Structure formats: C-alpha cells, structure tokens
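Fold this sequence, please.
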Amino acid sequence: MKTLDDLLRTGVKGRRILVRSDLNVPIADGRVTDDGRIRASLPVVTRLLDHGARVIVTAHLGRPKGEPDSRYSLRPVADRLAQLLGRPVEFALDTVGESARLLAADLKDGEVLLVENVRFNAGETSKDEKERHDFARCLEFLTGGEEDGGAFVNDAFGAVHRKHASVYDVAKLLPHYCGDLVRDELAVLRQLTESSERPYVVVLGGSKVSDKLAVIESLLPKVDRLLVGGGMCFTFLAARGFEVGDSLLEADQIENCRRFLADAGDKIVLPDDIVVAAEVSADAPTQIVAADAIPAGQKGLDIGPESVRAFAAALAGARTVFWNGPMGVFEVEPFAAGTKGVAEAVAATSGLSVVGGGDSAAAVRALGLDRNAFGHISTGGGASLEYLEGKELPGVAVLEEV
C-alpha cells in the first residue's frame, strides 16, 4: 500500500490532490461542538499544503438522503477547519457542480478547498456501481485527472468500511495513497489482533449487544477479560436470570448472551451494581442498586461505583486494552461517573490502551480527560469494530491494489 510519504516523494507542488477526510462531527446552532475528527485530519492536509499541493477535501456529514439538506451542510466545518489550519479554506456550495469545478480550477499552490457534503449526491452511497462510478468520475475531474497530476489520498479511517464513491470508486480512477491517519489506525488494529501483549482486556459498552455480537465472537478467544457495561450489559444480566426493570433490553439476544457466558467461563465480567432512575434526566432522583435487584419501573443508566472499582482492578495489570462504548448515559451528569472512572482506569494502564472511536472518543473529550494519557484514540468506531471482526474494509482493500 502506497503512503502519503510515497506521494510526497513524487513531488506535489502545483498538483491538485483529492483528500477524503473524516469530518463527520456534531454541529449545533451552526457551530461545531466537538472538533476531534477535524483535528485528526489536520496533519495530512497540512503536509500536502506545506509541499505546495492544491488540496481538494471531500467529506460527509450525517445521513442526508442523496440531496442537499442545509442541516447537514459542511459550511460550519469549513469555518472550523480554517481556524485550526490558520489559513483560508475555500468552500464549494456543491459537490461536483459549477461551484466546485470553478474553485478547484482556481486553486493556487498551498491552497485548500472543501467541497459540500458528498452525501448530497445520490451517487456517493448508491448500490448501483455505475451511479457511484459516475460520481467518482466527477470527483476525479476536479483534480484534472492522472494526466494532469491528480492523485487521491484516503485519510478517512471512519469511512473505510463503506463502499462509497469518495472512498472506494475514486481510488480506482486515480493514483491512490494511504493517509497517515489510516496508516496509524491500521497499525494499532493489527497490534490488537495479531501481536497483543498479555494480559489483554477488552471493555465493551454502548447500547446494544447486537451491534457487538461479531466482535465478541472474534475477541473472546484472544482476550483474558471482557468487561461489559453500558446498555448492552442488561441483556447479559437478563441472560443470568436477573430482572432488569425498564432498562434497555434486547430480548432476542438473550440466548446469544447465555452462550457467551457459558463459553467464556470467568472471562466475561459484568457490573455488580447499577445507577438507576425512572427517566434519563439530570434532575431525576437516582439510586445505586445491586445488579440483581433493579426495581420495576427503573432504568439502569450507568454502572455503579463497586463496578467501576472491579473493572479498574481487572484493568490494572493489563498490557493491552481495547475500550469501545460508554458505561452509561455519560452525556447526562448523574450517569457519567461510570464512563469517567473506567476511562481513567484504561488511561492508567502501563501497556497499549486503545479507545475505539465513536462515543468512547467523544466521552474522552466531553469528560475533559487527558487525550495524551491513552495510547491511541481511534476516529472510526464502526470501522474499528469491523476490522476486529475480521471483515474486509473496502476502502483499505482498494488502496492495496496496484
């Protein structure tokens, strides 16, 4: 797989380079509220600009229905990107239309253009290969094509598990290179699957067992402990025969959880106590109850302090840790302590600690934790999980093609 270093060695001054970044960030009232993914995209864009490239950035935001939708415009992202880069960012009002074509053609050396949300074009996510190919051709046109020095750099690890036009098809049309972010993510994930030091502890949270079935199947034989919190723990508790009140429950997954518990022996560690309330509200009265004594009419919304201590003890001697998914509804203060406590325990481990993107990475930032205390914070929750499940990632596979 060719890297950005390989591209830079060929010389990029004066060339239009198409970069797929992951800028899928939360926006409220026209402002970016968490710029973690934008910051992660800066090194590749900056390196290209510093070498005199004319950089055209593509990205998506949310899930528009293949047509323009102002709620998902990348305009606020362009503004924040400009602030972080410390230089102007041109913004195209469309994806591959007149605005994008004119601005791309007018770029000067060391200048950057962000085009509008690629998912505003139905060809981006189409299941029809010709429709995707046609959109990718239009993206290629923005660079002038290979004959005019155009090239493609995929630095959007959070999108490599999608067979989308701006991730997969455009790499078929232009000389293609792996961005530094994608390179680093893959190196860490290979460590987790191929050369992890023991003891190896995985912490899984989030809402649904069904979202994590395949990764549990894949990781259970490899790990020493699997700590389960978040909404998904209640299906496991139900599999043990406990009442879970009004907590999140996937009844159709209880049998799978029973099988995991039977097969894993003492590898799977569940919470001992739970923070419950009648509703998800900062003002709701809360209580801490034993995991086997959740009252009717109460929802489990966080793991309790005894569970945090037990999870921290299991993490204390680990040499490899992978954490994906919060322990509770961390966005609401009364239910944030479990996630914060476990995150601090993950950060304190002496070996490799990997935060598996998505809500886990957001929690690190939202709770004010030191990002540098973790070995690696992923930008791609879904992509990370699919890699750990052993699935092929289309956006990576195409970069490996000569």
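The CA atoms of residues 81 and 132 lie 27 Å apart. The first helix runs from residue 4 to 10.
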